[in-house]
Amino acid sequence: MADLITLDEIEAARRGLPPDIRWTPLVPFSLDSAEVGSERLYLKLENLQVTGAYKPRAAFHILGSLTPEERRRGVVMSSSGNFAQAFAYAGKRLNIPVVVVMMENMSPYKIEAIRGYGTEIVFCENNYLARKPMMEKVASERGLLVMDTSEDRRVATGHAGIGMEILDDMPDVETVIVPVSSGGLIAGVASAIKLRNPKVRVVGVNPAGGAAAYESLQAGEPVVLDHWESMADGLSATRPGNFPFAHIQERVDDVVLVSEEEIADAFRILFSRAKILAEPAGAVTMAAWMTGKAGETGKTVAVVSGGNVTAETVSTLLAGELPVPIRQ
């Protein structure tokens, strides 16, 4: 049994975050005018976090915990884009060298943003599991410290601050819906929620074409997908991490699947009704709520995890079409 993160760890990580980290808003959402004033869904707008996604809490927590020698060496990490931006930004602010390993087919928007922070990108083949060997190769060649974010407990501990904010802002929440990739986000949010109020349901969401956490729960252990295909590039894990998966098993009530069409519908209604620009990975929670797949949720918070999306994807979705999916 894994040594799960504790409330003391979560609170310590939260206290250590710099002023750069924004306490993101929790706003009501209504499907139509008749619902205004009696909303049951609220959006946790992590697309308004610095760098445009939820990742900086964990990036600052990890880099801030390094020893002086580790800071001098610098780090190499892998990402589908949002965590890379967070590490790039935090590394620049803390004066710690960062190198990022990414798959070649990741979002051009995210690649440009990472380079904008002055961070080097090393590309690997379009296979989620190819990232770690490339990361280790770069580390060996340059003497960098490897950051395996899929297994580092500081990732979930840092992300848990989102769950703390939700409960601080809405103590009577009944369900929290969270996107799932390798599992660090939901491990942290679910830990904060369940350790403070075990009665709150926590529901994870996978794209149907990338159901790594869902299939792993069915199998009772982490499994590797033989195929991943979705527009939700931020949820590109073909296998959940062992450490976050232990939290999913213990602290998450359900993981559900949404289709590409449902993600597209959720993107459009977030844009038109809430005036929120969410990347597809951030819209999966709205898709789960709109379709009823999250179950009877009561007073609900959907985590909109990011808004880093290309203009091409936005225009395609607003035209009522589906963008070309990422495949691996």
Q: Give me the number of helical elements.
A: 13
Mean pLDDT, all residues: 96
Helix percentage range: 40-55%
Question: According to CATH, what is the topology of the largest domain?
Answer: Rossmann fold
CATH class division of the largest domain? Alpha Beta
Shape: globular
The side-by-side strand order for the widest beta sheet comes to: 1-2-11-7-8-10
Overall structural domain count:
2
Structural class: alpha/beta
Low-confidence stretches: none
Alpha carbon gyration radius: 18 Å
Strand content: 15-25%
CATH architectural grouping of the largest domain: 3-Layer(aba) Sandwich
Order of helices and strands: HEEHHEHEHEHEHEHEHEHEHHEHE
What does this structure look like?
With 328 residues, this protein is of the alpha/beta class. It folds into two domains: 7-54 and 153-327, Rossmann fold (3-Layer(aba) Sandwich); 56-147, Rossmann fold (3-Layer(aba) Sandwich). It contains 13 helices and twelve strands. The protein has a six-stranded mixed β-sheet, sandwiched between helices. Strands 5-4-3-6 form a four-stranded parallel β-sheet, with helices on both faces. Helix 1 crosses helix 7 (153-169). The relative contact order is 0.16. The mean pLDDT is 96.
